[in-house]
Amino acid sequence: MSVRLRDDFVAVKVPATTANLGPGFDSMGMALDLWDEVSIHATAGATSVVVEGEGAGTVGEGEDNLVVKCVRLALDRVGAPQIGIRMHCTNRIPHSRGLGSSASAIVAGLALARALIGEEDVLTPADILAIGSELEGHPDNVAPAVLGGATIAWMEGERAGAVRVMPPAQISPVAFIPDFELSTSQAREALEERVSHEDARFNLGRSALLAALLSGASQGTGEYSFHDMLMDATQDRLHQEQRRGAMEPSLALVDWLRSADLAAVVSGAGPTVLSLESVGADIRHEAQAAGWKVMELAVAERAVTITRGRLAGK
């Protein structure tokens, strides 16, 4: 049975995300309170895209736009008719900085298709997670964009799964955003194909601890405070140091922040650096003086949201 479109003007908002969080390579992520907003008019004419903010003048303004491609793919997947698209994007998520801009664009496109169809059981969040993870190749950024909060995600064959937790108040993300870009593919080229059992064991323990802390665990053994455990939980041996040559300033900043007793990690594939704890004015000023844009970004409790259309707010 074919699926029809019930609305001709819909809009969504989708959060930035950070992935890995140190040891949780390709599996852990968090939604951040920084949002792209996208609206679509279904038309009978040619596709056109207007982009304001991040990516203006550089991203595609027609059928080559990633959001448009994902709208079309989703409509095809469910047997819905194709349309002419007039799209407007207000982008706030920096591109190629490790804040999930591509995953957010993918999720926005899939959610826009869901909104155009306007049926709750078509392109469900589980469907969007599955298709988005297929397109991204891993679910670490897609999951928090779909579910909000912090997520632990995995792939079982071609199926994607994720669980959501809402981090405690001690988790107060601060992003240090550089003025240079780094593509995910370039960052991945620096990774080794094989890792040692010792390093794998190290990361397994740290990522398990981090998942517990993000879920609200707070009591450790002996003199371990939440902060002490978070410092240990955000250590990594699998991917950050291996990428130093591709983003030396970012790893130097991680080293500096951790020496100042802050739980800092590379955000996703970088080059943005994320502290999972609030920072003092002195740290902020020194980083800004060195050319970093410093943004306090709360954990986004809400995920991608349809803001215009019959499924608005659901």
Summarize the structure in short.
By secondary structure, the chain is an alpha+beta fold. It is built from nine helices and eleven strands.
List keywords for this structure.
314 residues, alpha+beta, four-stranded antiparallel β-sheet, seven-stranded mixed β-sheet, single chain, 23% strand
Write the layout of secondary structure elements.
Layout (H helix, E strand, L loop, with lengths): L8 E11 L8 E16 L4 E6 L12 H12 L6 E8 L9 H17 L7 H12 L5 H6 L2 E7 L2 E7 L8 E4 L6 H6 L7 H18 L11 H8 L14 H12 L4 E3 L6 E3 L5 H9 L3 E4 L8 E4 L6
Parallel strand pairs: 3-4
Antiparallel strand pairs: 1-2, 1-11, 2-4, 2-5, 5-6, 7-9, 7-10, 8-9
Helix pairs in contact: 1-2, 2-3, 6-7
